[in-house]
Amino acid sequence: MNPLRCLSVALMSAACSFAADPIAHSFLATGGETFILDGTGKTVWKYDHSSRDGWVLPNGNVLLALSRSKAWPGGAVVEVTRENKIVFEYKGTQSEVNTAQPLENGNVLLTEAGAKPRLLEVSRDGKIVVDMAIAAQTKDHHLQTRMSRKLANGNYLVPQLLDRVVREYTPQGKVVWEVKTPNMPFTAIRLADGHTLIGCTLGNLVIEVDADGKTVWQVTNDDLEGKPINDACGVQRLSNGNTAIASHHASSGQIKLTEVNRDKKIVWTHTDKRNSGIHHFQILDTDGKPEAKAQK
Question: 54 Cβ partners below 8 Å, 6+ apart?
Answer without folding.
Answer: 28, 30, 34, 62, 63, 64, 65, 100, 280, 282
